[in-house]
Task: inverse folding
């Protein structure tokens, strides 16, 4: 097992990465505040892993709430089911909420933990690759609004993250690829060594080689932790982690939440950002091709849905969290490994870039 | 005008108390983050004061959302109307949300500000006495759940509080008394000099003597600020501010939100807490009588609703935020001015005290 630390002063916490961690009570115990535990999961993950976790926690007063699986249920209404469960079981402020599932479950359970009785203890047990390499780390929690992704939420750090690689054995292939999208992101924005390693190992990742998976998760979490430690509340460098996400969120919202997986939308969004960076004259043709090529090899989409118009992109990106004083800021590439957040790009080229979407 | 400061490090903020502050742009301006402002009000307050505030803010891109008035609308559903408004107007992360109304509006607008795009700027303009002396100060925000008051929320400090005493001219008498309940609370729990002053001035308060009101608001805010500065997140002394509230919240939830005003429920709850403290042998008969007498003179209820049973109290108090490891902790009085939060009281006397409720 590997242990990484996210250093955030009195909100610091460990990330445990390894095999069969779900059964290791000693890892969880120090991070649970009292007897009361509420496990939040979904109807895909719970049938496979919930009993195993409840057995590990049998000495606690352990409750569980099982939500419907899918991004389309990441809403205030579903969030309320967590509160219903907590309150009908009279769970108090010393409660620990544990997320057992993918990014949607982690985001909702974390947001619920941030606001149940104005904040209770929280633990992440991510069971998808995407959640293990990205969403479980860094304390971003949220639900969606029909008019925008992740528009209602909080920064709220977990007490620990337990990434049990064994749970990836049951992950559908589409979800595996979606996770690889966020892994590739770290390489593209800041870690060219890792990018090269991924070019050599994407096949082994898709084949679920456990050593390769473990290394990719570790490097991803280390990259994420380094950024979050510098800028917990995204007033600066943390925005780089949104590479591909402004386009990606627009795709998710336009297609209807859950139609494209988050990682798939980010993959297409990263290709769009790379293409735009190249058209701006910032990124070389070769590097753009390497990025798009790796994403394609990971069995991910490299173009936005044909049904989407440039107008939809403009409209949906206008509520992006990086908009400042009416100006859209994008994460773009000055080079492979060199991402920047900027509103200072040629608007005529950007307009032409978007209108080409309609021409497809 | 008086200015008090709430000292919370980088979350410090001023409280302005005075006449006709709504029209003073210079007070608000330094606390607004960008051009975008969203005023949240209700359908009682907005017809009287919204235009005045919008005129003050005419140089901003100012939007408003008017919610239904009443504690029964302090819910996740109503909260979502704020998000609907913000997103349909494409308001971004540099937005400033301003609460214009009483405690319900302040709690909801504040919670919305804490989670819209994971946190935007927030300003409190309380227009009820209760909000001016209590709920607008200290950063507690929340909505209710059918199973418990204020169960979903956040600690989120405003950038400033603007208490315009002129707005109290239009306050209904019942609401005025409800505000006096929280004023009396400060005297009872920690400030006997203020309690004595209130015994001499409760008539002038009810008559809305502006100097007397101004002084009462100032002393109340100073008391609250001192406590919040010591314990922002209520891990200790701040719980004392909940004197009367554990009983009071049970009353509000049992009767249906909005049937009793919050201040009315707290008034009856304070009498219950004073009575219990006396029966435990902690508070003298005379002091108990002084407390109940002052509350009565403020035209507030001194007993819980006759429809409520002891069982309802036990049931509803079990989800109180002060419950720890299954033990109910209450704010009780060791003396007038000497409140304590404790689970260490004679349970037989408490049981008898509650069963007397059924005997009424």
Result:
């Amino acid at each position: 097992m590997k242990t990484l630390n996210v250093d955030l002063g009195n909100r610091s916490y460990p990330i445990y990465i390894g095999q069969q961690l779900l059964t290791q009570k000693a890892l969880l115990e120090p991070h649970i505040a009292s007897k009361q535990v509420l496990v939040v999961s979904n109807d895909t993950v719970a049938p496979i892993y919930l009993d195993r976790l409840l057995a590990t926690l049998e000495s606690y007063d352990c409750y569980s709430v099982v939500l419907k699986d899918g991004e389309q249920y990441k809403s205030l209404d579903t969030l309320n089911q967590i509160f219903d469960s907590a309150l009908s079981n009279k769970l108090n402020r010393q409660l620990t909420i544990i997320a057992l599932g993918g990014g949607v479950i982690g985001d909702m359970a974390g947001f619920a933990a941030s606001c149940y009785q104005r904040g209770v203890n929280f633990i992440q047990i991510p069971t998808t690759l995407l959640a293990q390499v990205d969403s479980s780390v860094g304390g971003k929690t949220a639900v969606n609004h029909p008019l925008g992704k992740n528009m209602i939420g909080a920064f709220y750090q977990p007490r620990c993250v337990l990434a049990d690689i064994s749970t990836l054995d049951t992950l559908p292939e589409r979800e595996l690829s979606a996770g690889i999208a966020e892994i590739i992101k770290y390489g593209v924005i800041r870690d060219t060594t890792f990018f090269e390693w991924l070019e050599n190992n994407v096949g082994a990742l898709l084949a679920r080689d456990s050593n390769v998976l473990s290394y990719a998760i570790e490097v991803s979490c280390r990259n994420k932790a380094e950024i979050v430690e510098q800028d917990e509340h995204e007033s600066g460098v943390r925005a780089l982690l949104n590479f591909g996400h402004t386009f990606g969120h627009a795709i998710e919202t336009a297609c209807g939440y859950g139609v494209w997986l988050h990682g798939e939308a980010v993959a297409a969004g990263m290709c769009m950002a790379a293409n735009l960076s190249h058209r701006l004259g910032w990124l070389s043709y070769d590097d753009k091709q390497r990025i798009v090529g790796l994403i394609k090899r990971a069995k991910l989409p490299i173009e936005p849905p044909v049904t989407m118009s440039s107008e939809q992109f403009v409209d949906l990106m206008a509520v992006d969290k990086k908009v400042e004083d009416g100006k859209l800021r994008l994460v773009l590439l000055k080079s492979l490994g060199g991402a920047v957040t900027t509103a200072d790009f040629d608007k005529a080229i950007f307009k032409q870039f978007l209108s080409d979407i309609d021409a497809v």
User: Anything to note?
Assistant: The first strand of chain A starts at residue 2 and ends at 6. The mean pLDDT of chain A is 96. The two ends of chain A are 48 Å apart (CA to CA).
